[in-house]
Design brief:
- The chain is an alpha/beta fold and 248 residues long.
- The chain contains eight helices and four strands; from the N terminus they run ααβαβαααβαβα.
- The protein has one domain: Alpha/Beta hydrolase fold, catalytic domain (Rossmann fold, 3-Layer(aba) Sandwich), CATH 3.40.50.
- A four-stranded parallel sheet has the order 1-2-3-4, sandwiched between helices.
- It is globular.
- The mean pLDDT is 93.
């Protein structure tokens, strides 16, 4: 869902209206299949010409730019929020960069990437990316690489202690926003045959993460809905987080 021209958040949601509530929104552009991580190497399955370095972009370039333009007030810190493959990344980036973030949210995220079977699930999903597949081994290395654990939100829960943490997910069942993209056969296929399994997996991952967080003394705001892996639900979650004080 990450595009090169505009952020999907800008195209498909109204989250830019958060500015009316005093929340400045920065939407990254690009990074399909990146998990917003620093990769080990370019993906060799699709002849990618560069190595993803999203952690560098977010925690260095972006933070420095925001600071230089006066967005950090006093000793304040920033919020970070991601959806799908960016959900777990948002939690992990916050946990590992407490000097810059004091709240993190994962919407339909994969927050326990080292769970049994998850590495294979991620591998298969990245092979299914159109128009050309990505090689997951180029991201964190082989399944036994320690980089998988270091980029796993569940293994970074202690770093979230004292932060505001929000997680949300649908349950994989078709709901009110599932066909917002239209009634075409492709929309039906994406929502039901792709979106439903993705969201069911996210649901189990989000529930497991919430349990881990509670066991580790990290309070979590959560939101669950009847729905699939699509923008309308993520927009609802953002406003739910705002109304519950996530950005305050």
């Amino acid at each position: 869902r990450a595009e090169y021209g505009y952020s999907g958040w800008e195209i498909n949601t109204n989250v830019q209206k958060l500015v009316n509530a005093g929340v400045n929104v920065v939407q990254p552009v690009g990074g399909p299949a990146s998990f917003y991580a620093d990769w080990d190497a370019p993906s060799n399955f699709n002849a990618q010409p560069f190595t993803y370095k999203w952690r560098c972009v977010i925690t260095r370039s972006l933070i420095r730019t925001l600071d230089a333009n006066g967005f950090r007030v006093g000793n304040g810190k920033y919020a970070i929020m991601g959806l799908s493959s960016g959900g777990g990344a948002a939690l992990t980036i916050a946990a590992q960069n407490r000097q810059n973030f004091d709240r993190a949210a994962s919407l339909s995220g994969y927050n326990w990437m080292t769970a049994p079977g998850m590495r294979t699930a991620i591998r298969l999903s990245m092979l299914d990316i159109s128009p050309s597949p990505f090689n997951v081994d180029s991201m964190f290395g082989p399944p036994w690489s320690p980089r998988w654990r270091s980029n796993d939100a569940a293994w970074n829960i202690q770093g979230l202690r004292g932060m505001k943490v929000y997680v949300g997910s649908g349950n994989g069942i078709v709901g009110q926003h599932s066909f917002d993209g239209g009634s075409s056969s492709m929309s039906l296929f994406n929502d039901v045959f792709k979106g439903a399994p993705l969201e069911l997996l996210s649901f189990t991952q989000t529930k497991a993460f919430e349990l881990f967080a509670n066991l580790n003394g990290v309070p979590v705001m959560s939101s669950y809905a009847m729905g699939t892996h699509s923008w309308g639900y993520w927009q609802d979650m953002v406003w739910d987080a705002k109304n519950r004080g996530f950005f305050r």
